[in-house]
Amino acid sequence: MVLTLYVDYVSQPARAVGILCKVTNTPFEEKTVSLVKGEHVQKPFSDVNPFKKIPAVKDGDLLILESCAAIRYLAAKYDGSGKWYPSDLAVRCKVDEYLDWQHANTRAHGVGIYFNKILLPAMKKTEPDMEVVSKHEKEMARVEEQFASYFLASKPFITGDSPTIADLVAAVELEQPKAAGYKLAKATEEFLARVRDEIGAELYDEMHGPVRALAKGGE
Amino acid sequence: MVLTLYVDYVSQPARAVGILCKVTNTPFEEKTVSLVKGEHVQKPFSDVNPFKKIPAVKDGDLLILESCAAIRYLAAKYDGSGKWYPSDLAVRCKVDEYLDWQHANTRAHGVGIYFNKILLPAMKKTEPDMEVVSKHEKEMARVEEQFASYFLASKPFITGDSPTIADLVAAVELEQPKAAGYKLAKATEEFLARVRDEIGAELYDEMHGPVRALAKGGE
């Protein structure tokens, strides 16, 4: 059974599945689908994922097109420690709660900042629409506040002393507006530092290299 | 241990958790939080859920503020049959894949239609902005097409012959634009009929009574 990840690590969810596989020593085949080159909207990838989004994950015959579903599955199947997606129902529920919440919160506004401040101006060769950017930045401040007060609530990680896939997904999404120059709150930065420590600084920085370079105008 | 659901069945995710508990004969205490009366943004409910959204679920000390996390948890804990959230990893992954996909698809555009066509005009005493409604209707047609071709792909339900929480969440969300007069595709209507049959027509229609009445201008 071959596990294949279709990824470009400038994408937050692609980083999340990639980091999970690396940190759990899960062997996988990596197929890079360049977002900058538009490979995600062309054949052969559009035959793999009709929704034309990355990451896509294939485990033998099983195709998974949603990153949170993929990361739950990969953790449940390949993480022998059980720590990344704990099987205790109440703990797992708190992991799921964050993964569901983040779609319209951390992700929506982190993407909103990065897309409108960096990607769209680069594609259109124009200045960013700062009114739109500022709307997302205001929402991002609210997201950070709720993340700290409700999800972390003084714990190091969402479910307690050990990080789970929820923290991993949170971290990769929070790094996106940061790469675009958004100033994260101190509590958020401290959370990111804890996740980086747990994953290992070398792997964490290597996986965030492409998005940081892209935000700076390199590739 | 008391299980409490804070609900108003005009809300799709509130219907999903309510139907799951009823269909699995899970005893619960029901606390109605009226959306029309704005009770979700006031005390005492805003002390239960700082995000001021329903449903909220409390199982003993465990508070769950996201409906998809709640429905996964309730099915895993209280459904003795195991059919609503199967434990087989590959099957469960397909349930999760739909639950993740629907946030920005079925839910976003179903809500878009219902909110802009029914709720906003009712609150503002104005005519609906049909340009906005029509944008969501166009996206809804795309959602229906992808739901049929990728998620159902000729199967009666998302994972095969038996419905899961993914089908339940899909059905309650698809009923929302339908209540607002959006004409669903034939394949979507046939899917809804299958879910209604499995849940039982009486319970299904009872739970959809409030949203249908609200859409018609009653309460």
TrEMBL record, chains A, B:
Q: Which GO terms describe its biological process?
A: glutathione metabolic process
Residues in domain GST N-terminal? 1-82
InterPro entries in alphabetical order = Glutathione-S-Trfase_C_sf, Glutathione_S-Trfase, Glutathione_S-Trfase_N, GST_C, GST_Theta, Thioredoxin-like_sf
* Gene3D superfamilies per record: 1.20.1050.10, Glutaredoxin (3.40.30.10)
Molecular-function GO terms, alphabetical: glutathione transferase activity
Task: Note the superkingdom of the native organism.
Answer: Eukaryota
Give Gene Ontology CC terms. Answer: cytoplasm
Any matching Pfam family: GST_N
Protein family membership: Belongs to the GST superfamily.
Q: What is this protein called?
A: Glutathione S-transferase 7
Provide the species name.
Eriocheir sinensis
